[in-house]
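Input/output pair, single chain:
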Amino acid sequence: MRTFVLLVLGSLATGAFAASEPKPDCANASTTVQMTQCAALDADAAEAQLNTAYQQLLKRLGQPDTATDKFSLMRQKLQVAQRAWIKFRDADCDAVYQVNASGTIRGLAALGCKRAHAEQRTKELQAYLGP
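Output:
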């Protein structure tokens, strides 16, 4: 977990650096640093989409309870599930980082893990929202 936290802090620092520097040309990224910067941008975009889906679902579940639909309980269960999912994602991506710890691709692999999990969870939350 500590490693993943350091990775996230590193990607935040990369994001802060990227704010003052031009964004990397991700279509032509050729160094590990460039690829990692692009992976961090992709992971951040996936996390933003996840957050949007989650907030939309929370809003929908914020309506008053009815005789047949207990929206407050649904909302509570969703929040518990999301917190558990975040712990799982962090642990899983930390494991990916550790498996690759001896290589320069470790950060890229962990960020790819984070992006993939966010994309999958977004699909799951969007399924709750329906068409």
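The chain has a mean pLDDT of 88. The chain has one domain: 2-129.
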